[in-house]
């Protein structure tokens, strides 16, 4: 029932047990998502606690994802302020939380934003900070993220998009030394 206003407020046991928390999104920045934690509400207790709870935002990073600038722009377009998200704690680094971020799409369907970013080719799979390499959870999540990245690679999406044959030929011709010299001669 406690509202967490800082990453350091979250108990170590919560991070160790990979607890899922709920929050309202405020901003998407290059550093991550700024989220206001929504505690579990107990009718009488919650109304009393609200009077003493201070405001503060948690910095939530997408675990195992190295975002590109186009990935940040995509998140800013897709996520709306005050939207409720779930984040599963995987690790804590200084004032930031490494998390799997889940977004509800309808009543029974939720989407993992970490995988969705990789599926769209808007980032690269990276090491999942906060989890031990020898844990089963680490390898399970890492495998999921690599599969999502492979889908983008196969479909040539985002950073994996390749130039078409005609674009490659045009680029080779324009960068040819003889053609560049000829262009200078003609413009002279």
UniProtKB/TrEMBL annotation:
Primary subcellular site in the record, as a coarse category: membrane
Gene Ontology CC: one annotated term: extracellular space
Highest taxon of the lineage: Eukaryota
Compartmental location: Membrane
UniProt xrefs under InterPro entries: C3orf33-like, SNase_OB-fold_sf
Membrane topology: Single-pass membrane protein
Keyword line: Acetylation, Membrane, Transmembrane, Transmembrane helix
Membrane found in the keyword field: yes
Protein name according to UniProt: CC033 protein
């Amino acid at each position: 029932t406690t509202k967490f206003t800082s990453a350091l407020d979250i108990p170590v046991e919560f991070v160790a047990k990979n607890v899922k928390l709920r929050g309202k999104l405020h901003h998407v920045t290059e550093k991550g998502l700024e989220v206001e934690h929504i505690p579990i509400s107990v009718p009488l207790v919650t109304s009393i606690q609200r009077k003493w709870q201070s405001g503060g935002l948690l910095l939530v990073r997408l675990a195992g994802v190295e975002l590109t600038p186009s990935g940040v722009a995509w998140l800013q377009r897709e996520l709306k302020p005050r939207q409720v998200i779930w984040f599963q704690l995987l690790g804590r680094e200084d004032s930031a939380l490494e998390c799997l971020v889940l977004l509800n799409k309808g009543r029974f369907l939720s989407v993992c934003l970490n995988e969705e970013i990789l599926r769209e080719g808007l980032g690269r799979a990276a090491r999942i900070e906060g989890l031990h390499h020898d844990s089963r959870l680490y390898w399970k999540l890492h495998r999921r993220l690599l599969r999502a990245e492979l889908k983008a690679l196969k479909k040539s999406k985002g950073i994996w998009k390749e130039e078409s044959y005609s674009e490659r030929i045009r680029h080779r011709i324009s960068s040819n030394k003889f053609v560049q010299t000829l262009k200078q001669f003609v413009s002279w």
